Amino acid sequence: MFFEIGSSVVMAGVAGYTFLYQSGNANDNSKIQRIAANSGLTVKEGKKTRTIQLLRKTKYDWGFEYVYRVPLGLSFSDFQNKRDQLQDGLNNKSSLLNITLDDVLTIDFKKDLLQQLKDLFKEKKSQKEIELFYDGALKIRVYSKLMPEAIEWDETLLEKCKGWKVPIGETRDTFISHDFEKTPHMLVGGSTGGGKSSFLDMVICHLLNNQTENVKFHLIDLKGGVEFFRFKDCKQVVSYAEEPDEALQCLESATNKIKELQETFRKRGVRNCKEAGIKERHFIIIDEIAEISSADEPDKEVKKIKEQCEYHISQIARIGRSQGFRIITATQHPTQDYVPKSVKRNSDARLCFRVRDAVASKVVLDTTGGESLPKVVGRAIYQDKGENTTVQLPYLETGTMDKMTHPHIVIRARKEEGSTKESDKTNGQNRKEGATGGTDTLVIEETELS
Ligand SMILES: Nc1ncnc2c1ncn2[C@@H]1O[C@H](COP(=O)(O)OP(=O)(O)OP(=O)(O)O)[C@@H](O)[C@H]1O
């Protein structure tokens, strides 16, 4: 009897909170409209003052999507500028609870009820987060669960992402990865400090560990080597560049290899590396592609080099996939000038960190949204074959990255003393690729095994 009364009280309490939560949702539309009106998102038409008008409301697992007609005279960016007001307004009731029937069923009535309720309420006390989109109508997504603000990389991700998969991150309720075998080329864009290079580093570490024997890297680090230097002596790195002329050598050697393979495939009557039984995959990774854009280059000679780089990038993106070549390009300046059309056309995967404005978002994603991401490092919109998902990327810290890289480092041949830094590196690489004409004096190649 006592148990029945107790459990009824508990259920009634929980139901009360659940109602509060649900009615919170029910009120979201009127709140959004009030916030819009109070924060000046209105236009005057004669004597009337107009604001947004609800067209439809749809419930999803993650929350609700409200679609509004925007009065003439207001633009999407007017709403984006008021994103914080809209979100804060929806959260001004401090105790919104997201408790479902499943949560209630987890309560064990034989144990300390009060403690269990306290724990449940603590866990379920939720804030709402919003995202804005525009496709002729204003869409406001109200998420009932916050995205994680930071995720530490851990070793279980190596198990979760087998084959040619790499982690992308966590959504509000699931983990997603990217499969370079299914979608080979990727464009990564976002303002400075968003997490682009850290993502590229994580991709390299994953593939070094999960595809040790099959992966080949062509690393082009135009940020002065600060990002990829730790990988340059890895056995799997077949070419490495820090300057546009070195980048050209890297890219040329990649296109030559593609053409060589095309010829072999033709002779063997096979269409691609899968049919040819080739397990090797080449990753050309370029961190900051804007640095090899010919668009604003004043120096004639350098411009020529950059134009050739663009030509090779375009070739690799267009014809490389059947030969097992994948290209990942990253930029903090996503503009039409800096991202070659062929890269965009052929990169079915996109990763867009927060960008300055809708124009930049459209360059990366072909749609707006990247400019409305919250200012959270590692937060991005992942797009695979046109479908967008907001994710929080895991962060692989430097110490762990070094530990993962260390077993793959080999001692390379060094060039004669007095050689320039650039030719030193490329000669070492060319020798590895089998090119002739190097003047190396020392040939040691020692692999440290884990
Ligand atoms: N997923 C993440 N989660 C948390 N912190 C991160 C994440 N990724 C990067 N960071 C932090 O943000 C810093 C900047 O990241 P990163 O260098 O990758 O940015 P970026 O977009 O490449 O910037 P830039 O274009 O200026 O080089 C890192 O040094 C790290 O401290």
TrEMBL record:
Comp. bias regions, Basic and acidic residues: 413-434
The keyword ATP-binding belongs to this UniProt entry's keyword annotation: yes
Molecular-function GO terms, alphabetical: ATP binding; DNA binding
Residues holding ATP: G190, S191, T192, G193, G194, G195, K196, S197
Superkingdom in the source lineage: Bacteria
Record keywords: ATP-binding, Nucleotide-binding
Residue stretches making up the FtsK domain: 171-362
InterPro entries (UniProt xref): FtsK/SpoIIIE/SftA (IPR050206), FtsK_dom (IPR002543), P-loop_NTPase (IPR027417)
Protein name: FtsK domain-containing protein
Species, as recorded: Anaerobacillus alkalilacustris
